[in-house]
Specification:
Layout: E1 7-10, H1 22-27, H2 36-44, H3 48-60, H4 76-90, E2 94-98, H5 106-119, E3 122-126, H6 130-135, E4 139-144, E5 147-153
Helix pairs in contact: 3-4
Length: 168
Amino acid sequence: EQHPSDVALVPQELGLVNTLSVFHNVYMARLNRHNALYNLLNLVRPLAHEVAAVRPILQRLDLDEKLFEPAGQLSGGQQQRTAVARALHQGGAVLMGDEPVSAVDEHQSRRVLDAIVEAHATVVLAMHDTALAIAYSDRIIGLDDGRITLDASSAGMRSSDLDELYGG
């Protein structure tokens, strides 16, 4: 049985606080692990060991140079990677994501998806990039108006096999 804290989320609406730094937006994933005074102190003056915990995640996602930049000043792709970094920092056995790589190029997409699948035992993603969906999944489930229209192994599947799901 999964506990809600075991599930990390990357929503399509990223949920970033634009006035806070990338560090703070990622750190928020673990607010529940500390008391309010600790979190306030870390907001005012980031603690070295908390920065050290976040930095490798940002390095993995090519965001480490943006560590203390306000999230609102980032490009759309950088903001999306910040939301992914927050989910990676949260940890847990399961990650659920809604289009977690839609705002980044294919190279960045693969880097982000590699980080996601390496960090979580179970990953459930809503994706429209069929090639990436096939490459990074064991199973493809297609939905149409809330009904399951496809539930198949991705092994040997081609993007063209999914054209019908997208009205192709």
